Amino acid sequence: MNEISKNIWEIPRSDGMNVPAYIVASNSLLNKIEQGAIEQLKNVASLPSIVKGAFAMPDIHQGYGFPIGGVAAFDAENGIVSPGGVGYDINCGVRLLKASVYKDDISQYIEKLITSIYSNVPCGIGSKGRLKINRKELFSVVTSGVKWAKKKGFADSADIDSIEDNGFLPRCEPSSLTERAIERGLPQLGSLGAGNHFIEIQYVSDIYNDEIAEKMGIDTGMVTIMVHTGSRGFGYQICDDNLKSLRHKYGNSLNLKDKELIYAPISSVDGQKYISQMHCAANYAYVNRQLITHWIRESFSAIIGNAVNVDVVYDVCHNIAKFEKYNVNGKEKKLLVHRKGATRALGPGNLLLGEKYRAIGQPIIIPGDMGRSSYLLVGTKNAEKETFGSTCHGAGRLLSRHKAVKATRNIDIEKALGKQNIKVMAKSWRTLHEEASIAYKDISEVIDAVSSAGLCKKVAKMRPLGVIKG
């Protein structure tokens, strides 16, 4: 590897790679990246029609086909789309809310708030939402996005203005969905799920950019709430359905280094079907986070009083493929940018941003782990130039779930967090151990790596007060 600029390393073309591979990382983080993830990145660089390079963020770890923390762009006219480049949890993403109260105002209410939200928002493996919707309503959700939630009284215009894509991706045709995907989507709308998904009550501990923080309405000591979840079993099934159908049709004809990298031409019937269904899952996920927001608001009102406001700062997805335009070799090209465990980081003035944040750049929300901190950032023009407007999405795992459980078997995680004045509630003992801080890289080190590389600017840091895990 060669460091071609601050914290950006190049793996030159070799072994059938069509483009170089690039890793964004400090020296310290580079040494923590598993070899399997690097091999996956090189395999991605070998795919046809890939443009410029295959990119990995400092939170990279091994995934299905594409590494988690990976970015790859393909020519929109003659390129490919790969479900593995988006992942199973389509539009897994993060929403940041801000409350009109401060840490000292609610210290006595944290346990009651966590208990209320835990009761209000279904969570855990296979959890079912509170809403009972039929097939027709599900189709309305996936073809309307958060506009459906507004119509039903779960959202307002201010919410929609603060969501990536305004909470809606077009070109959805739900009639192509399998019955199994529909069956899984019907009961789970408005549920958190399990694994690394969470709801976290936080407070703003540090402000790094006063001007941008002020424009976002963020202040030191302010209470924030972070929601991390996606499209649940609905998105999983859509990914699985398309992987199986593509393997059946193309598996024997493609010379793949890894069968998990199966793809279809964007312009093909199969490619268009996947993109349509991916958009359905993305809209489902936007609505899912909106419903959870509504129930969080109910809990704050019930525990603290109706005078408290809970507003959306921003909502971003980090498992998605989107058509975007970038300058490649001096020419503007339309590309399909796959981000799997990577967050869009568009700079100031980009027309893909709504008017609310266009002047400052896209807000970026990066969770850490339940024992440390999370960050609010904004995108840069340099990110558009270097990484197709992309940055990291989290801390990135150091230990597998199994190894994390083994390493913390004799530790009372709830008690340990309590010593840090962090209240935690979870559906299972195992989830807490799988998600212990020891399982993750240090989020502050990851953020320093991407900000030093010029992919984003730090705005604020938030520390946890209470955590809900599925």
UniProtKB/TrEMBL annotation:
Mn(2+) 1 binds at D89, H197. The keyword Disulfide bond does not apply. Keywords: GTP-binding, Ligase, Manganese, Metal-binding, Nucleotide-binding, RNA repair. InterPro entries: RtcB, RtcB-like_sf. One of its GO terms (biological process) is RNA repair. Mn(2+) 2 binds at H228, H318. One of its GO terms (molecular function) is RNA ligase (GTP) activity. The keyword Metal-binding applies. Binds 2 manganese ions per subunit. It catalyses: a 3'-end 3'-phospho-ribonucleotide-RNA + a 5'-end dephospho-ribonucleoside-RNA + GTP = a ribonucleotidyl-ribonucleotide-RNA + GMP + diphosphate; a 3'-end 2',3'-cyclophospho-ribonucleotide-RNA + a 5'-end dephospho-ribonucleoside-RNA + GTP + H2O = a ribonucleotidyl-ribonucleotide-RNA + GMP + diphosphate + H(+). Pfam families: RtcB (PF01139). The active site is at H393 (gmp-histidine intermediate). GMP binds at residues 196-200, 318-319, 367-370, 374, 393-396, 469. Its cofactor is Mn(2+). Its EC number is 6.5.1.-. It comes from the Bacteria. Belongs to the RtcB family. Monomer. This is tRNA-splicing ligase RtcB.
